Amino acid sequence: MGQIQQTENSKYVDVQIIQDMYQKFVLECPSGLLFLHEFKRFFGVAATGEASDYAESMYRAFDRNRDNTIDFLEFVAALNLVFRGELEPKLRWSFKVYDRDCNGYVDRDELKAIINSIYKIKKGTKKDEDDFKLTVDEAVDRLLRAVDTDNDGHINMEEFIRGAQLDPWVLNMLQLDMNPAGWVLEQRRKSAQF
Fold first, then answer.
1. Which residues does the UniProt record annotate as the domain EF-hand (predicted)?
2. Which tens digit of pLDDT belongs to each residue from 42-80?
3. Burial, 145: exposed, middle or buried (Cβ in 10 Å; 0-12, 13-18, 19+)?
């Protein structure tokens, strides 16, 4: 059994798991850096296609220092947040995925691009069928009406978080898929079929 250490937020981290993750990371990325094409390959995503835009947005959110690479610390921090984090930090991370141009706002086009990617990825799954009764444009309009409280045509991080916390439908649409392991398995299953 690995060593266990307590972290600031009273959660426990198994040191052996971190060491194993590091060995796998270095095996996949000998340079110690994960580039976009490797990220897509790692998650079984084609260079283009329905999951590509979504994967690129996730990649940008993992890349905290915006150097177009993901180092091991960024990788572990993002996975820790996604798997174990509180709702508000998860929503802050989701906001970064939506904010494709990193200007601090999510506009209609950015919102539409991510919602469209999510629709394409989840199309045909029975699990989230109710979420897709609206078209992409209808979902974007509904989100903007619910979240853009100052009606300026874009959503800032505060509006994004507040809107998600106040409306369960909005939360479901904005928080993305907080089960990346499930998403990865689904992508690998789909790529194995071809």
1. 50-85, 86-121, 135-170
2. 777 777 776 788 788 888 888 889 899 999 999 888 877
3. exposed
